[in-house]
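> forwarded from #structure-qc
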């Protein structure tokens, strides 16, 4: 039996609140157990992913433990090392630092523990599969929608601000795809890019500064849920609902209210619950000796006033 690193084990237990002191050594006895190493528990997106993984694990007779890294990439690496010591049968990770996570991924692979990357796209390595949206392509999809909207509804011109999360590899890809696409219309100019740090309050402050510093702003693109919520709050706080159209990623009840109010125009909606489900299914297949596709794509949809009704029940 593999030796346990009890110091790290107890650290994970305390950090997540998901393992009691009496269960520190239970994972070795309760097989099979999978681990999901998550970014945070603040965003609805991650909680929906957790729910999908939990339901799929339960349905297939597996145990699932979830680690909340609280936006700390070092904690994610430590958690993976701990789960390796515990002897889990599979690991899923939504990486904060896609390059910095790779040594831990390689360590898991060396221990013959399959790793499924969810959402954040990892560089080439020993991970068994990648589950999620193509974030670069998703940025292009909403970028094309924005270009068409500007042409049809804004006289072909827009003064754009971007609320990103420069600490997120995923959101940087979404920003890149969007910016590459909007270059097709020289009438769209980017006033500034601000860093919301993937935290709603920080995104709101950054968006308010963006609006104050650029009174001619007519549109905002937000690259994730905290950025979108922050941008919506900033537009409302500044009373600019009539002048500024908001585009972004990841629906919430607040974003739906903004769509109803006419100032949130389009949101690219992923299916994080499906991502969690597909990741567990992939681990189930691998642990049963089957092969899975290296890339498992989960579609995303542009949500507007025309189709928002079908999403309302999800956010009540």
């Amino acid at each position: 039996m593999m030796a346990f690193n009890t110091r790290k084990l107890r650290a994970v237990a305390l950090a997540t609140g998901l393992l009691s002191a009496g269960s520190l050594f239970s994972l070795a006895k309760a097989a099979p157990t999978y681990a999901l190493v998550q970014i945070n528990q603040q965003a609805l997106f991650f909680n929906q992913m957790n729910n999908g993984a939990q339901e799929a694990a339960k349905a297939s007779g597996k145990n699932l433990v979830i680690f909340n890294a609280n936006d700390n990439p070092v904690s994610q690496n430590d958690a993976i090392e701990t789960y390796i010591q515990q002897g889990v049968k599979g690991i899923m990770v939504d990486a904060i630092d896609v390059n910095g996570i790779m040594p831990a991924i390689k360590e898991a692979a060396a221990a013959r523990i399959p790793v499924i990357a969810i959402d954040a796209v990892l560089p080439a390595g020993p991970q068994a599969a990648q589950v999620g949206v193509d974030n670069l392509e998703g940025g292009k999809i909403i970028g094309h929608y924005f270009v068409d909207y500007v042409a049809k509804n804004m006289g072909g011109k827009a003064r754009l601000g971007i609320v990103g999360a420069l600490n997120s590899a995923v959101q940087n890809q979404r920003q890149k795809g969007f910016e590459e696409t909007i270059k097709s219309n020289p009438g769209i100019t980017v006033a500034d890019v601000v860093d919301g740090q993937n935290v709603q309050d920080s995104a709101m402050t950054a968006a308010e500064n963006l609006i104050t510093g650029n009174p001619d702003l007519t549109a905002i693109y937000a690259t994730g849920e905290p950025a979108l919520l922050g941008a919506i709050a900033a537009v409302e706080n500044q009373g600019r609902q009539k002048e500024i159209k908001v585009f972004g990623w990841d629906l919430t009840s607040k974003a739906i209210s903004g769509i109803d109010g006419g100032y949130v125009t389009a949101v690219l909606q992923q299916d994080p619950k499906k991502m969690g489900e597909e990741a567990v299914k992939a681990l189930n297949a691998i642990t049963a000796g089957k092969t899975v596709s290296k890339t498992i794509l989960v579609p995303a949809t542009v949500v507007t006033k025309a189709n928002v009704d079908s999403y309302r029940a999800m956010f009540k």
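QC bot note: DSSP finds ten helices and twelve strands in the chain. Residues 27 and 137 are 39 Å apart (CA to CA).
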